[in-house]
Known about the structure:
Structural class: alpha+beta
Radius of gyration: 14 Å
InterPro entries: ATPase_NBD
Number of strands: 5
GO molecular function, one term: kinase activity
Shape: elongated
Number of domains: 1
Strand content: 35-45%
Organism: human gut metagenome
Distance between the termini: 7 Å
Keywords: Kinase, Transferase
Order of helices and strands: EEEEEH
Protein name: Ribulokinase
Strand order of the largest sheet: 1-2-3
Amino acid sequence: MSNFVPEKTALGIEFGSTRIKAVLIGPEHTPLAQGDYTWENQLHNGIWTYPLEQVWQGLQSAYAALAADVQ
């Protein structure tokens, strides 16, 4: 990746309703790499929610996919 300068990047994480998205933004405000994880909410005691374990699993998976995209 020729325009990858670690000191001039920003990492964005979005916990959306259907996917967790991770995006690495470069100095020109353009996406350099991305990763995601698909998930589905669950009805628990009358509340739509996500299990905390799945939050962590999804974050790790999205970040790993982003890291693989950088290389």
